Every structure is written in structure tokens, then in C-alpha cells.
Write a sequence for this structure.
């Protein structure tokens, strides 16, 4: 049986996971009457809730005499570390592009990685059944993108299919017969080369993904480069620097069959498998026969651009909602995360019980925090800060390419807000139907917290996409939040009467009945300074009856802070307290006297 290894790459929400669903169904992997969840490859709760792919997943389908291993990759730039490693496992890629939106920043990012590795993509213009589809213009835009990314002559001669993943058909021209995905299967068979392998060489494999299995231990997935892997065979792990990390045996070989992993006795070169049995080997290590001395070169990972501090929750409400609250538990969990997630960096800070976690962006770090709180962790999280680097004595900061699709009437406010955040407008062009496409080069630190403001400014109609572009000289200070906050000056429970009396000071962030403590942020001050207020003081009751009835307390609904909003909202002097049930905002120093002392030190400094 012949093998084909392909990855599906695209911008977020262009239909990768839905297309994989249909490929699995039409290849006969599922029974006709089998009940399978929509977007079956998105196995993680957060992936299902958000409708995005976070972790790369492998599957395989049988089509005639071919077994096609398919890797579904994430579409967000924040999870680019997954995409880069995965592409070294495959021999071809399907590049999906939305027939209405066309190529977007992440399309450019993943395509650039694929072309650099010498892969020859198959272009699938998906969602051509959309009422606003413009497949021919999008096809031209894709060709221009290939040319802009310095594609070779062979890569520029890419085959194109027009498809609707949801309806389950693909054809070579828009006038073609729309029956099923057979044209796609045939193109994969004819265009994607079989893996080039040496069967009689000693066994070797580059580990590209890692997961912890409660029964089998560490599972390392990769493509076998040479030789044959057999159960119970002696192997060793070589690090990317050539040092031997450990020696062991293959306790289990798992091969991908549809959505399941089936134990097999042996697997040959070219196949993508998961191996169990090693205790220290991790991503980018070479698993090989004891006779092998050279490691397989691994794809370099782009450096992280953003960092947050995860510290122990030391608020008066600590330990009430979570069961993992100590610094040691947080430390162990973070270091376990970086074993499999090579795009993250963790280092201990001088403060102790606090860890700096660096990653690609707010979304990646937000997903990690959300995952940990669901596991029962309580933590304090700092405002994200950008990681600078110095070259030739010059301070450089990360710059992102920001692409915005917006109605013409809102373009003025978007350009103004991004200019204030030190962004440069690189391109502005109409895309039809009264819409404009704006392209900015903006410093990463200027984009922290901009997403919510952008949605408000465009009344929820704008679409913003961003991807790392380069490092550039420091662009100077950027103004942060202009308003102050209302801070609780007492421990207790918030009372409706007190909140009602404070409403003219600014919008509230909490509801009545919520536990509060000294130093907790309960609202936004309409002015630029912070204000300590009492939110637990109820109405004084007397035995003298008033002639009029008591006034009914009608509260304005509070601003509900999601995790992402809270992280973007806080300043450097504030923290987000994250527990399994609550997200609270607080001052870094809870005691008002300590805050004053600290601000005096800051002013003097």
C-alpha cells in the first residue's frame, strides 16, 4: 500500500477541520450511520468552544490502494510553533483559501514556511458556495502571494481546486461536476510525492509533537525517516545539540487509523506514528537505533515576543475555589507545558513563587491560563509585556503586520487609534461593497488590549488579523489606559445600595453579593486617578418612617471582564486574579499605604 503525507494549512476559520471531517467520511473511515461530532478533529474543550484548532492533530484515510496521513494544523499565528514542526513531517500541503476573504496574514505565514521547505502546495479555494465568493480574483491574489514569497518555478505551477468543504465537493473548474471530493484525492495521489525513505537504514525519527498519556507515559509523534520501528526495540534519544539524552525501549507503536490510534507491531520508514517508552526525550529530539550517531536537523522556532508573570495568588480569597495554589504546583505545571510546547519559554524570577512565561501572543498565553484554571489552579497574572532585543547597541521591538477589513465609515477612527499606538499605514484599498482593507505595521506593545476597542469602534463589523513581521527600532512611549479605577477599601460582600451610590463615579465591574477585599478593583473611575471606595456599606435603617417610599435600587449592568479583556485592561501596577470560578482585578499592592510608598519610589526613580 502506497503512502502519502500531507498537511492542511490555512488562515484561521477558512475550513481546514471541516474539510478533514468530509475527507474522513468520503473515504469510508466512518460508517454511514456512525454518530461523529462536527469538527471531529477538534478534540479539546477549548477548541470546540472557540471554534479554532490549537493543537496539530494527525489522522489517516484509506483511498483505493493509498493510505493518506493528514495533519490538521492550527490557523492562529500564536500557535505557529506547531505549524513549523509539522511541515517537516509531510511531503505536500493543501493550502486552503476562503473564496471571499482571500489570502490573509496567517495564509502568508504558513505558506512562507511551506515554500521555504521546498514543498509544492495544492491550492484549494474553499467556500465557493458563499454568496460573496470571488474565486477567480482570489486565485489571482494567491498567485501574487506565491510570487511575493519567492516561490520557485515548480512551486508557482500549483494545481488549483474549487471546493465547498461543508457541502463535500471539489472540482478543477467552477463549471465542473460538483459530486464529491474525488478530484482532491486524485490530486493528492498524483501531485504529492511518496515519502523518500531508506528502508535498509537503521531506525531514526524526529519527534515533532509530544503528549502525556495516563497509561503509556510520554507519546512522541513523528515521521520515521529511515528503517523500521518494532515494538520492544532498543533505541536512544539524541538532542538537537548532538548529546545523547537517554536510552530505552519502544514499549508501544501507535499508528493513525481515522480518528483512532491503533497499536501495531512494526512501522516502516515514511509512516507517521506515535511511540511510547521514553521518559526524557521531547520535541525536536531524534529517536534512533543505538548505532546512529547523527541527529536529524530540526526546524528552528521563531522566538517568543510577549511575556507575562504567573505568580502565587496571595489575595485574602486565595484557596477558596481552586485546589492547586502553591508555587511548586504552578512551577511543575508550567515546566510540563514547555516540554511539548516549544513556542513557550518559562523562567523563574528573582521574586520567588513567580514565573515569567514568554510566548507568541496574547491568545496563546490566554489559552494556557484558561487551561490551567480549568485544571483547578489559582494564580495572579501580570499585564503582558513585549520582549525587546538589542543589536549593535540599538534597542529593537517586535513589529506585527496587521490586516483590517472594515466598512469605509469606520476607517477614520481605526487609522486614528492605530496611529496613536505608533502604527504605520502601509496600504489602503477598497475591496467592494463599501469596505476597505487596511494594512498596518504596528509595534506588538501597541496592540495589547486593542481588540476590544477595535470591535467597539467598528460596531462589531470589523475583522482584524495580525502576524509577526520583524524587529524594528523602538518607536517611543505609547499612552496606556487613560482612566483610573475604583478600589475597595474594605473586606466583605458588595451591597447593591453602595454600588448604586457609586454609579456616578464610573461603570462597575462587579455585581451585588460578590466577595470583595481591600485593594480589589471593583469599577472604572471616570477620571484619571484611582479612588478608594466602600462597597459593603448598606443603607442605615432607622425607626422613623419617611413620608415617601424607599427609592428602588436599579443598577446599571456591570462591565463583565473575560480573561482576555482583563489581561489587556490592567496596568503594570495591577494583576488579574484567576481561579476556577472567578476572574478578579486587583492592585499589585493591596495595602493603600504600600501603594503610596511604591508610587513615590516610582516618581523618584
Amino acid at each position: 500500500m502506497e503512502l502519502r503525507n500531507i498537511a492542511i494549512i490555512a488562515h484561521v476559520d477558512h475550513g481546514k477541520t471541516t474539510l478533514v471531517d468530509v475527507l474522513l467520511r468520503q473515504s469510508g473511515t466512518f460508517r454511514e450511520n456512525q454518530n461523529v461530532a462536527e469538527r471531529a478533529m477538534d478534540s479539546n474543550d477549548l477548541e470546540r468552544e472557540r471554534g479554532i484548532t490549537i493543537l496539530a492533530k494527525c489522522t489517516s484515510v484509506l483511498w483505493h490502494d493509498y493510505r493518506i496521513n493528514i495533519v490538521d494544523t492550527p490557523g492562529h499565528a500564536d500557535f505557529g510553533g506547531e505549524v513549523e514542526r509539522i511541515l517537516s513531517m509531510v511531503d505536500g500541503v493543501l493550502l486552503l483559501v476562503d473564496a471571499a476573504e482571500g489570502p490573509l496574514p496567517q495564509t502568508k505565514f504558513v505558506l512562507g514556511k511551506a515554500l521555504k521547505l521546498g514543498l509544492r502546495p495544492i491550492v484549494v479555494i474553499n467556500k465557493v458556495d458563499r454568496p460573496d465568493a470571488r474565486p477567480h480574483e482570489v486565485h489571482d491574489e494567491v498567485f501574487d502571494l506565491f510570487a511575493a514569497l519567492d516561490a520557485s518555478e515548480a512551486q508557482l505551477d500549483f494545481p488549483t481546486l474549487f471546493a465547498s468543504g461543508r457541502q463535500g465537493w471539489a472540482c478543477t473548474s467552477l463549471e465542473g461536476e460538483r459530486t464529491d471530493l474525488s478530484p482532491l484525492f486524485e490530486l493528492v495521489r498524483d501531485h504529492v510525492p511518496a515519502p523518500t525513505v531508506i528502508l535498509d537504514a537503521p531506525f531514526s525519527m524526529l519527534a515533532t509533537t509530544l503528549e502525556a498519556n495516563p497509561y503509556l507515559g510520554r507519546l512522541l509523534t513523528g515521521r520515521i525517516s529511515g528503517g523500521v520501528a518494532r515494538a520492544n526495540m532498543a533505541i536512544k534519544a539524541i538532542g538537537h545539540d548532538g548529546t545523547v539524552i537517554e536510552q530505552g525501549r519502544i514499549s508501544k507503536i501507535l499508528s493513525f487509523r481515522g480518528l483512532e490510534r491503533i497499536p501495531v507491531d512494526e512501522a516502516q520508514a515514511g509512516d507517521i506514528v506515535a511511540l511510547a517508552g521514553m521518559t526524557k526525550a521531547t520535541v525536536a529530539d531524534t529517536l534512533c537505533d543505538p548505532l546512529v550517531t547523527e541527529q536529524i536537523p530540526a526546524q528552528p522556532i521563531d522566538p517568543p515576543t510577549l511575556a507575562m508573570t504567573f505568580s502565587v495568588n496571595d489575595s485574602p480569597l486565595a484557596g477558596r475555589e481552586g485546589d492547586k495554589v502553591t508555587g511548586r504546583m504552578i512551577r511543575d505545571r508550567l515546566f510540563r507545558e514547555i516540554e511539548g510546547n516549544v513556542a513557550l519559554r518559562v523562567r523563574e524570577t528573582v521574586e520567588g513563587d513567580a514565573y515569567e512565561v514568554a510566548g507568541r501572543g496574547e491568545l496563546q498565553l490566554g489559552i494556557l491560563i484558561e487551561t490551567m484554571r480549568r485544571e483547578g489552579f489559582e494564580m495572579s497574572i501580570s499585564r503582558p509585556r513585549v520582549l525587546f532585543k538589542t543589536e549593535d547597541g540599538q534597542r529593537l521591538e517586535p513589529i506585527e503586520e496587521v490586516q483590517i477589513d472594515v466598512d469605509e465609515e469606520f476607517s477614520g477612527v481605526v487609522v486614528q487609534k492605530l496611529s496613536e499606538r505608533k502604527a504605520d499605514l502601509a496600504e489602503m484599498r477598497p475591496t467592494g461593497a463599501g469596505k476597505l482593507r487596511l494594512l498596518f505595521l504596528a509595534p506588538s506593545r501597541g496592540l495589547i488590549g486593542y481588540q476590544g476597542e477595535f470591535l467597539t469602534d467598528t460596531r462589531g463589523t470589523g475583522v482584524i488579523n495580525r502576524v509577526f513581521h520583524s524587529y524594528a527600532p523602538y518607536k517611543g512611549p505609547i499612552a496606556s489606559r487613560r482612566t483610573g479605577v475604583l478600589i475597595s477599601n474594605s473586606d466583605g460582600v458588595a451591597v447593591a445600595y453602595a454600588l448604586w451610590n457609586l454609579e456616578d463615579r464610573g461603570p462597575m465591574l462587579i455585581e451585588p453579593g460578590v466577595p470583595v477585599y481591600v485593594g480589589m478593583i471593583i469599577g472604572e473611575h471616570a477620571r484619571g486617578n484611582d479612588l478608594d471606595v466602600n462597597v459593603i456599606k448598606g443603607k442605615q435603617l432607622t425607626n422613623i418612617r419617611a413620608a415617601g417610599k424607599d427609592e428602588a435600587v436599579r443598577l446599571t449592568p456591570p462591565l463583565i471582564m473575560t480573561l482576555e479583556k482583563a489581561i489587556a485592561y490592567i496596568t503594570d501596577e495591577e494583576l488579574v486574579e484567576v481561579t476556577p470560578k472567578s476572574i478578579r482585578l486587583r492592585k499589585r499592592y493591596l495595602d493603600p499605604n504600600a501603594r503610596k510608598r511604591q508610587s513615590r519610589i516610582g516618581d523618584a526613580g
Observations:
- The first strand starts at residue 2 and ends at 10.
